[in-house]
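Session log. Operator J.P. requested a structure for one protein chain; no other inputs attached. Running the standard single-chain path with token output.
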Amino acid sequence: MQLAGVVTGSTTFSNILQACPKVRDLEQGMNNHQSITERGFLLDVVVANALLDVYAKYGSPHKARQLFDKMTQKDVISWTAMATRYVQNGVLNEALRLFEEMPQRNVVSWNATISGYAQNGVLDKALRIFEKMPQRNMVSWTAMIARYAQNGFVEKALETFRKIQLVGVNPDSTTFVNILPSCAKMGALEQGIDIHQSIMERGLFSYIGVANALVDMYAKCGRIHKARELIDIIPEKM
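Structure written below.
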């Protein structure tokens, strides 16, 4: 396009940059960075965010941060993208600092920070952030359940699941996949049966991950015949 003499606009650059991560073309992203700077399109927050995404995903947090600091305009997407990449690279203190400095926060920035600390086993800090979250959604609740379960705090996982029901949030398939192993480890058959009922009421048994987790729960709680019964009716076995 550029060789043919076609003038590249900010929208074109934004579209090209959004495609770079899909093909993992960091070199192409860097080449576009030079063209973007020369044409002054780095002032466009949409273009800058797209370039930031390329560096954050396939460059390094350091390169992404250099670009972030040079951006004259930043929106909630910019701040969240940078904080999220720090989280994914385990740079938690810097991620938290950015999170605290954000002029605005959306549900993605809250969930990314909570999940980052939880995934790295820093559950106390994840919980403190979770408790400050002004409006929790299923992603944030499920993140806490998953990390409690994966770090061996099965009672806390079950307690958090009960809280979901008390506040009227509807669990989704991912929530059930993460809570059922806690029932299995605790031998909490009665709660597992209640969860089974909730799964059937919501029509989620058709999800193979949910069905497998339910079978596993019954088997580990000693209800082998029930586990076998469910295996026979799983829509798609893996």
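Operator note: The mean pLDDT is 80.
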